[in-house]
Amino acid sequence: NSITTDQGLPSNTIMAIEIDNSGIICASTPKGISKIDPRDLTVHNYDVEDGLVSREFIEQSSFKDNNGWLYFGGRNGFTYFHPDSLKENKFIPPVYITSLTVAGEPKYFDKPLYELEDIELGYNENDFSFDFVALNYINPQKNQYAYMLEGYDEDWIQSENRRTAFYTNLSPGKYTFRVKGSNNDGYWNEEGAHLALFIHPPFWKTWWAYLFYAMVFIIVVYMLRRNELRKINLRQELELEHINAEKMAELDKEKSKFFSNISHEFRTPLTLILGPLDRVIERLRKEENKTDLSIVRRSALRLQTLVNQLLSLSKLESGKMKLRARQENIVRLTHLYLQSFHSMAEDREIKLAFESDAEEYMVYVDTIKFEKVVNNLLSNALKYTDKGGEINVSVSGTTPPAPPSNGSDSVKENSSVFSPPAAAGETQRGQETGGIRITFSDTGTGIPEEDLPHVFDRFYQVDEKQMKTTLGTGIGLALTKELVELHQGTSSVQSETGKGTVFTVILPSGKDHLSADEIVETGKHTPDTDDDLLNDDYLFMNEVGAETKTKSDVPGDDALPLLLIVEDNEDMRSYIKSYLEGDYNIIEAEDGEEGAEKAVEHIPDLIVSDLMMPKMDGNQMTARLKTDERTSHIPVILLTAKASRESKLEGLETGADDFLTKPFDADELVARVNNLVHQRKHLREVFGRKLSFMSSPGPDELKDSGITSMDEQFLSKAYEVAEREMSDPEFGVSAFSRQMGLSRMQLHRKLTALTDQSASEFIKIIRLNKAAVLLKSKNATAAEIAYDVGFNTPAYFSTCFKEHFGISPSEYTGL
Ligand code: ATP
Ligand code: MG
Fold it and tell me: Residue whose CA is closest, atom 5 of ligand 1?
C-alpha cells in the first residue's frame, strides 16, 4: 500500500517521517507536512498558513522528543508541534448566498438575499452571477464550494474556493440555485444554501400573451370566415335577386303579353258591338230606345277606351311606342283639348278656366299623346271635383332650371316628383332653354298624403269606394306619366285632402332632348304616324254611321270585282261582308289555308284577310300568295288587331298592300278596298294601253307599271310563249294556258288583272304588234305577214289590225 498525491499528499517526495504516540504518521514533504492516519489512510496537509515556518523541509531532518513533540527541519528553521494540537476544525460553516450581480450590476432586493426564499428576474436579466460564502474564519481561503443551478446544471460544480457562480443567457423558467461549502478541513455543509429563482418570460411569451395570440388568431379566423360567409351569402342573394328579377321580368313580359293579347281579343267583339249598334241607333226613330242603346254604346266605348289604354300602356312599357313630336303651340293645343270638356263641366256645374302668360309657346309634342295627357288630367279633375268646384288649367314658361315642384299655389306643398333619373337628366338638358309648365288645379276632394306617391302607379286608386261611384280603373295617371316621360318631361302632384289637387306637367322646350327619329317635320304628312291605340278617332268615326258609306267609285263593270274575305270569326266576316256586298262579288274563307286555296282557285281581284287565324295566319297566307305566279298580283288588305308598328312592317315585307287596325271603321275598310281596286284598275289600264303599242315591254316599263317582280316574270313568260307560238294559227287560249301551266280561268283572270286584256285578246295583240314590226322591216306582203303571225285569213288580219291600230296594214307600211 502506498500513499501518493492520489490519496492527497501534496508531493510524492517524503523528506522525513515521524510516528506519534497515538500511531499517527507525520511526514514532511517539499510542500509542507502531512498527517496520515494509518487506519483509514486519510491524509491531512498543513501549510505555511497553518503555522509552518516554511513549506520546504529537509531530508532526514526530524525528531520526536520524550514529551511527544515532533520537530521537522526546514530551510528557514524548524517547525515543531505536538500532534495532539493538530486538532481538526470540525466546525461546519453556514453557507450564505450573499449577492447577485446581473449584467455586471449588483441587484438588490427589499431584503438581503440570504433571507429570501425565491427571487424573480425579468426575461432580460438572464446574465448573472451569484456570490456566496461559507462562514468559517479559520483558514477561510481553504473553504471549498460546490454549487449547482437546478434546472440548468446537471451536476454539482466544484468551484474550489471560488465564491462566484456565473450564468449567462438562461432561458425563462424556474431554477433553484444551490450552493454548499466546507471549512478549511473539508467539513461540508451539505445543506448549504438555496434560492429559487424564476426568470420571467418576456411579455410576448407569457401565457396571457399566448392566450391573446390565440384569441387574436381565433378572432381573425372567425372574421375571415364570417366575411367569406357573408360574401357567399351576398353572392347567393345577388344571384337569387338576379334570378328573381329575371323571373319578374319574364312574368312581367308574360303579363304584358297576356294583357295585350286579351285586349286584342276584346277589340274584335267590341268592333262588332259598336259598328252594328251605331247603325241600329242611326235607324231608330224612337227616342227612348235611343237613350237605352246609347247607354249600351257608352259602356262599349268605355270598354274600348280601357282596352286601348291597357294596350298603349303595355306598348309604352315594352318601349315600342315611339314619340312623333312636332313643333306645336302648346297654348293653343291645351286650350283646344280643353274645349271638349266644357259641356261636361257645365253639366256638373264646375267652372272650367284656362289661362296662359303668353299667346304662344312652341314645344315639340306628339299631339295625340299630349291630348291623352290633357284628357286624363282633366277627366280626373272633373271626376274628383264636386258640384260648384273650379278647375283651372294654366300654361306658363318656367325659368331654367326649374325644379318641377316649386308650386306657388295656395295648396300645401306636398309634392312628389315622378321621374326616373335618366329621364330627369334628359329633362335637364332640355330645360337649359327652359320648359313649359302646364298645371291642372282643382278644388276637389284632394288626395291623402299617404296616397300621393302612388297615384301614378298602375291600377292605383285612392279610395276603393270611389271605384264604385265613379267609373275608373286607375290606369289614367300611369299612362299620363309614361306619356309625359316619353316627352322627357316630368309630372308631379300636390294635393291636400278637402282643398284640391294640382297636377303639374313640365315639358322641356327645344328639341335637343329628342332624338332625330322622334321628330316629325312640321307640315310634312306622315301616314300611319298616329298610333291607332291612342287614336280615339274611330270612336267618332263610328258615329258617322252607315249612311255616309261611300258607294263604289269603280266604274260600272259588267261583272263586279271578286273579293275574297279571309277571317276566322264568322261574325266579323259577315260584318265586313255586309259593307261590301252589292259592290263586290264576295267569296269567303275561314282561315289562311282555305284563303290561299280559294285565292288560287278563283284569282280574286282583292283579298281582305285577318292577321291572326288558325292553321295559317294572314302574313303567311299573303307571303304564299305573293310568291305564287298565279296570285302574286292580287292586292291584300290585312286586318291587324296588333296595332304595333312591327306587325305592319312584317305585313309589308310579305307583300300585304294595306292595313287596317282592329277595331276598324267599316267605312274606312270600304274606302280602302275601293281605293285598291281602283288603283289596280287604273294601273292595268295604263299598262294595257302601253301594251297596245309595244312588241314586248322592257323591264323598266314593267316596273313603271307598278307590278311586282313575280308579275314581271309572269308577263315575260306570257310574252315569250305567245311570241313563240303565234305563227301557229291553232295557238289559242287553251294552248296558251297549258303552256303557262294555268287553267284557262286562272290565266284569263291573271292577264285581265295585269293588263286589262283577256287571254285571247292578249294573244291577238301580241300577234298584231309583231305584225306591225314585220311590216316596217320586212319586204313582205301583208298577206304573208298575216300568215306568219298566225292569222288564218289576210282579211281577218286586216280587220283586226285596223281595229287595233286604227289604220290598215297597207296604210301603216306606207307611213
Ligand atoms: P282611369 O283614369 O283609368 O279611368 P282613375 O281616374 O281612377 O281611372 P287615375 O287617373 O290613374 O285612375 O287616378 C288614380 C287615382 O288618383 C284616382 O283613383 C283618384 O283616387 C286619384 N286622383 C287622380 N286625380 C285626382 C284629382 N284631381 N283629385 C282627387 N283625386 C285624384
Ligand atoms: Mg283618371
Answer: 474
Mean predicted confidence (pLDDT) in 113-125: 88
| Ligand 1 atom at minimal distance to the Cα of residue 446 | 29
Q: Count of CB atoms within 10 A of residue 776's CB?
A: 10
Helix (H, G, I), strand (E, B) or coil at 239: helix
List phi, psi (to 5°) of 133.
-155, 145
Atom 27 of ligand 1 has which residue's CA nearest to it?
Answer: 381
Phi, psi of 785 (to 5 degrees): -65, -35
Our answer on whether the CB atom of 448 is closer than 6 Å to any ligand 1 atom is no
- CB-ligand 1 contact for 384 (6 Å cutoff): yes
pLDDT digits (tens, 9 = 90+) for 548-573: 223 333 333 456 888 899 988 887 88
Which of 65-69, 465-469, 604-608, 725-729 is the least confident region? 465-469
Closest atom, ligand 1, to C-alpha of 471 = 4
Say yes or no: CB of residue 444 within 6 Å of ligand 1: yes
Pairwise CA distance, residues 803 & 806, whole Å: 6
Alpha-carbon torsion 385, 391, 395, 401, what sign? negative
Please provide the average confidence, as pLDDT, over all residues in the chain. 78
Whether the bond between 663 and the residue before it is cis, its omega within 30 degrees of 0, is: yes
What pTM value is reported for the model? 0.40
Mutation test residue for ligand 1: of 302, 380, 462, 470, the one with most atoms within 8 Å of CB: 380
**What's the mean pLDDT in 382-407?**
75
